[in-house]
Amino acid sequence: MARVLAAARAEVGASVGGRTLIGAMSSGQGSIANNETGLREGYRGSKAALNQFMRSFAVRQPEPPRTLLVMAPGWVRTDPGGSDAPLGVEDTGW
Fold first, then answer.
1. CA-CA to 49 of 20 to 30 Å: which in 2, 31, 60, 85?
2. Residues 6 or more apart from 6 whose CB is under 8 A from it?
3. Distance between CA 61 and CA 93 in Å, rounded?
4. What tens digit of pLDDT does each residue of 7-34 get?
5. What pLDDT does residue 15 have?
6. How far is CA 20 from CA 11, 46, 48, in A?
């Protein structure tokens, strides 16, 4: 998240058609409404904060417009994701 904050504050991003693109990798676990287990508080809290930051940044941006992209890749079988995740790395297109 610190990298996202630094990039947004410095207005650094990829140039797409002459416009700035700032992207962030979030998670469905950052949803407050969908928290039904109360587990993984640190991870959930960091993703909720990231989502809120990106939303706040989007609504207060002056001209010229910037593209802000927040995406959630899904639950993927990786070391952090664990073996119970329904998607393998090969399913993600990376």
1. 85
2. 12
3. 32
4. 444 444 555 566 778 889 899 889 999 8
5. 55
6. 8, 24, 23
Q: What 8-state DSSP symbol labels residue 30? A: G
Ramachandran quadrant class, 71 (left: phi over 0; alpha: psi -120 to 50; beta: rest): beta
Amino acid, res. 39: L
DSSP at 76: B
pLDDT interval class at 94 (50, 70, 90): low
Encoding tokens for residue 36?
């039904």
Q: For residue 46, what are the contacts with CB-CB under 8 A and spacing of at least 6?
A: 1, 30
pTM of the predicted protein model:
0.66
The DSSP element (H or E) to which 70 belongs, if any, is strand 67-71
